[in-house]
Predict the 3D structure of the following.
Amino acid sequence: MTDLSWLFLAIAAVLMLGLFRLLRARKSTRASYTRQDFLLSAEERHLYKTLRQAIGEDYAIFGRIRIEDIILPRSAPGVDAAWDALEGLGETHFPFVLCKLGDLSIACAIQLIQPRAYSRKANDPGEHPLKAICAAAGLPLLKLEASPFYDRQDLRQAVAAATRREPLFITEADGRKEPTIAELEKLEL
């Protein structure tokens, strides 16, 4: 080979090496993404299927709804101990929210809890802050233990109990309880 051939070969090798490094550097600065195959975890998918069968056409089921999309604290951050405790636990979503089909008003939220035997927080004293927050907001909360099996009838009854509106009684100053108008409408005259 002549000197000129070696020169062209050396230039081609340097150009190839430079191109290789350029492509490698460009590839490393490009963002990489991974698509999730499922919106819900395996436990949540199993519960969803059984819940769908249990409630029939009465409710729409929405999954992974942020707690802040349904409940907002009225007080400033750092003032509400229950809200701060909930944030400390890292719970940000309701696994499921049931809404009435007619107007999509919120009927109840569902909290999926781990069985006590496997829960890290099983020894924690006191009540879960989400229960107190939902009670204060007037949002029915249905707590379901994660399980490999769910009974449709039990789920149907649990949803019915959670979404049942209790009559509102107004307590008078003398201790007497008066039913609301909704209760009076049920009376037969």
